Amino acid sequence: MTVNKTGYFTHSDCRKHEMGRGHPECPERLDAIEDRLLISGLGDALDRREAPLASTSDIELAHSKMHVASIRGLGDELADQIAAGGSTYEYIDPDTAMNPHTWNAILRASGAVLAATDAVMAGEIQNAFCAVRPPGHHACRDRAMGFCIFNQVAIGARYALERHGLERVAIVDFDVHHGNGTEDILAGDERVLMVSFFQHPFYPGTGAGPHAANMVNLPVPAYTKGMVIRELIEQEWMPRLEAFRPEMIFISAGFDAHREDDLGQLGLVEQDYAWITTRLKDIARKHAQGRIVSSLEGGYNLSALGRSVEAHLRVLADV
Ligand SMILES: [Zn+2]
How far apart are CA 264 and CA 175, in angstroms? Predict the structure, then answer.
């Protein structure tokens, strides 16, 4: 059976998570994406679905029980603190906080990726994009950091392997920051190949040193432009992806490498995201029956984010 539909998984709970005035990882990011889908008419071409809540046992495919319990505990502490008239935020690190909606938001974010995985594996849809927040790729097995609490893409990859019985899953991370959390969780797991590029030296400072054989890390200097990135991808990612023959591809889709995004200093534009997505679709079509699940990571210039997600989705959905 051939299907040519793209799922769009999101939930209003993901909008309610919020970390204080002026924080770049803000609810308006999802509005910017929704606006572009509406203005362009692209939204009508997508199979829109509500993200369910992930179970903690699925979260624990990628995180320690201790981490999951400590985040749940922080959520309970926050509720007590608010009841006592205290602050409505609980800080996990200087950049990352919980509000009363965060627990549900993180379960929806993971739930989106897992439901998308189920729908793609069932052949109901060809591929999917999860418009969720908070992002996940800095979240390590045992700790939250850098706006991220649970690592939805790492959880999704493990879920595809453990619950759907796949043997080889690829993760592609094109966020401007190194996906140190995903590497922390999946380094040495030979069922997974992770390919990425990222600005270096830069937050979180990882990725450029020695690393496990299943990681293809491409550190690039600030101000690198899209054509150079494309060449690197062609030379370094594609042969590894071809040799690995993934049965499914997960994308940590961060759009903060866009030239207009002030949180990074790389020079990508919409057409680069479209090109990368096209190349990944080529691999997916050849080896993975077209299966791709993409999940939002960074992207903080609202206009550039909306336009870049549109470009990514146009290729995924073939419209
Ligand atoms: Zn980022």
Answer: 9
pLDDT digit string, tens, across residues 197-231: 999 999 999 999 999 999 999 999 999 999 999 99
Ligand 1 centre and the CA of 297: distance in Å?
6
164 near 43, Cβ under 8 Å? no
Q: How far is the CA of 256 from the centre of ligand 1 (A)?
A: 6
pTM: 0.98
Vertex 271 angle, CA 270 and 275, to 5°: 120
Centre of ligand 1 to C-alpha 1, Å, is 37
Distance 173 CA to ligand 1 centre (A): 10
CA distance 277 to 224: 19
66: how many CB neighbours lie within 10 A of its CB? 12
Task: Using the mean position of ligand 1's atoms as its centre, give its distance from the Cα of residue 177 in Å.
Answer: 4
Per DSSP (E only), the strands in 44-168 are: 46-50, 90-93, 96-98, 127-130
Asked whether the beta carbons of 177 and 199 are under 8 A apart, the reply is yes
